[in-house]
Design a protein that fits this description.
Length: 136
């Protein structure tokens, strides 16, 4: 994606515009974001509000982590469901006439994988709670 943007900027400076550069950049962003959601969840690097939650007691922190995982699961499944059910095979981009349905399927698949990773995170949170209770 960086290479495409760099080439487009250089060519534009030389008065050689590239047709569809915005569309290509948007598609590259869809691919990067949809494919990175589940990975980011698996390494626990999503943005969190630790500045507030870290001041709560340990049990409250665990509750908010579980609540966040449940909300992530619900949100990702809803988004995935909506993208699959509203799939339109006839829609194409305005300039390059690229069909949109493969990218919508990729978005739905990415959100579904994010939800599955959130389920694994939730299971691991419950396991860690049980392990903490055993040592008390």
């Amino acid at each position: 994606m960086m290479f495409v943007i760099a080439v487009v900027v250089i060519l534009r400076a030389m008065s050689i515009p590239v047709v569809g550069d915005y569309e290509l950049t948007e598609f590259a962003m869809v691919i990067v974001i949809a494919c990175s959601l589940a990975y980011t969840e698996s390494i626990n690097e999503h943005i969190s509000i630790g500045i507030i939650v870290d001041r709560f007691p340990d049990k409250a922190q665990k509750f908010f982590n579980i609540l966040g995982s449940v909300l992530t699961i619900v949100f990702s499944i809803i988004v995935s469901y909506v993208f699959i059910t509203k799939l339109d095979y006839d829609r194409v981009t305005d300039l390059l006439n690229i069909p949109l349905y493969p990218f919508k399927i990729l978005i739905a698949f990415g959100f579904l994988l994010w939800g599955l990773e959130a389920i694994l995170t939730l299971i691991n949170q419950f396991i860690s709670i049980e392990e903490d209770e055993e040592y008390v």
